[in-house]
């Protein structure tokens, strides 16, 4: 069986999660890496014995690629994905899909027109705690959801932003704590509720940073068409990355996640707990290890299984578009200081 020829564009912090996942598969071959910083591309190319590029257009021309992994700054996700789709290259991109909702829609439409697969990384859906809550919602054990809340309180100092040439800007990052840190937790909540959004009512502000343009604090509500209202609170000026929290008040009990650990307490007295398995690890280059990386591997394997075996793709472009629309609505509401109503999942705001 011939192997899928794969490239990764962007050789930053998240690169090892993708590279090691690719090389661990027998049906995929990492043939090229690309980064605007030559030293980074060359370093990774040497490790993985593949070609190095600083221009992705040149890479597209010279390599006969089947798959592209996008690990770039946010503002580059859409243009690179769209160009790849036009060349019939399958795409797996890190979150967020894009900065602007219209660009994300174009990504989905271009992939569909060219009959290529578009996947978007939201690896936290694969955590055991997330899976437990989703299963108990789907099988009815928790009953209907009455309301929900989430909290993300992390640390991203001015020194953190000084090390980046794109973070902290509206033009390139597209936002702050919401689009970069809280997006995973907000995606989980939307996935749990599994209903179309009615409206978003949010406030955003920069309260504790001196050098960034974007928000470091956000709070508000996401209201769904079935009547469920969820609250969110996110800041990135705390003194450490506190465990994220999600709570769902349901008809038959309460489901709560703290970090990756989920506890479900039903009104009939039963209790269910799911957490990361210490035996479930995945080794990355330079000794990088992490439970969240295991979930990365699970999603990447699902992506390749869909390409090779026709397995249903868990997080399609269409599915990720729902979260993208929600995130963009938070910014629209926060900037305009007014409630943003939704018409349908696939319409622009």
Mind explaining what this structure looks like?
The chain has 10 helices and 15 strands. The chain has helices at residues 15-23, 38-48, 56-62, 74-86, 101-113, 128-138, 158-162, 177-193, 291-309, 317-336, and strands at residues 4-9, 28-34, 51-53, 67-70, 90-93, 118-120, 145-153, 197-205, 217-224, 229-235, 245-250, 253-258, 261-266, 271-274, 340-341. The protein has a 9-stranded mixed beta sheet with strand order 14-13-12-11-7-10-9-8-15. A hairpin with a 2-residue loop joins strand 11 and strand 12. Helix 1 crosses helix 9, helix 4 packs parallel to helix 5 (101-113) and helix 5 (101-113) packs antiparallel against helix 10 (317-336). The longest helix has 20 residues, at 317-336. It is globular. Mean pLDDT is 95; it is low at 345-349.
Could you write a compact summary of the structure shown?
The chain contains ten helices and 15 strands. The protein has helices spanning 15-23, 38-48, 56-62, 74-86, 101-113, 128-138, 158-162, 177-193, 291-309, 317-336, and strands at residues 4-9, 28-34, 51-53, 67-70, 90-93, 118-120, 145-153, 197-205, 217-224, 229-235, 245-250, 253-258, 261-266, 271-274, 340-341. Strand 13 (261-266) and strand 14 form a beta hairpin.
Ordered list of secondary-structure elements with their pairings:
Elements: E1 4-9, H1 15-23, E2 28-34, H2 38-48, E3 51-53, H3 56-62, E4 67-70, H4 74-86, E5 90-93, H5 101-113, E6 118-120, H6 128-138, E7 145-153, H7 158-162, H8 177-193, E8 197-205, E9 217-224, E10 229-235, E11 245-250, E12 253-258, E13 261-266, E14 271-274, H9 291-309, H10 317-336, E15 340-341
Parallel strand pairs: 1-2, 1-4, 2-3, 4-5, 5-6, 7-10
Antiparallel strand pairs: 7-11, 8-9, 8-15, 9-10, 11-12, 12-13, 13-14
Helix pairs in contact: 1-9, 4-5, 5-10
């Amino acid at each position: 069986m011939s192997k899928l020829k794969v490239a990764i564009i962007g050789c930053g912090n998240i690169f090892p999660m993708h590279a090691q996942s690719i090389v661990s598969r027998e049906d995929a071959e990492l043939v090229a890496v690309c980064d605007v910083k030559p030293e980074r591309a060359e370093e990774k190319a040497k490790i993985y014995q593949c070609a190095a590029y600083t221009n992705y257009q040149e890479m597209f021309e010279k390599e006969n690629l089947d798959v592209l992994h996008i690990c770039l700054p946010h503002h580059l996700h859409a243009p690179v994905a769209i160009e790849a789709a036009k060349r019939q290259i399958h795409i797996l991109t890190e979150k967020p899909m894009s900065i602007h909702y219209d660009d994300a829609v174009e990504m989905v439409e271009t992939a569909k027109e060219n009959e290529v697969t578009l996947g978007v990384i939201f690896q936290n859906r694969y955590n055991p705690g997330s899976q437990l809550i989703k299963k108990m919602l789907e099988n009815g054990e928790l009953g209907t959801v009455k309301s929900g809340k989430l909290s993300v309180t992390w640390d991203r100092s001015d020194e953190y932003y000084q090390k980046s040439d794109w973070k902290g800007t509206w033009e390139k990052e597209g936002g702050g704590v919401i689009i970069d840190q809280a997006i995973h937790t907000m995606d989980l909540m939307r996935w749990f509720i599994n209903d179309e959004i009615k409206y978003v009512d949010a406030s955003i502000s920069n309260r504790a940073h001196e050098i960034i343009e974007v928000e470091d604090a956000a709070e508000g509500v996401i209201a769904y068409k079935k009547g469920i209202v969820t609250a969110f609170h996110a800041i990135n000026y705390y003194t450490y990355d506190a465990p994220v929290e999600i709570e769902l008040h349901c008809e038959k009990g309460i489901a709560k996640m703290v970090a990756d650990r989920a506890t479900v307490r039903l009104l009939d007295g039963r209790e269910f707990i799911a957490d990361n398995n210490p035996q479930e690890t995945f080794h990355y280059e330079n000794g990088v290890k992490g439970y969240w990386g295991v979930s990365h591997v699970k999603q990447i394997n699902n992506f390749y299984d869909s390409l090779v075996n026709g397995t249903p793709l868990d997080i399609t472009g269409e599915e990720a578009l729902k979260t993208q629309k929600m995130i963009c609505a938070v910014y629209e509401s926060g900037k305009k200081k007014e409630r943003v109503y939704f018409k349908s999942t696939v319409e622009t705001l």
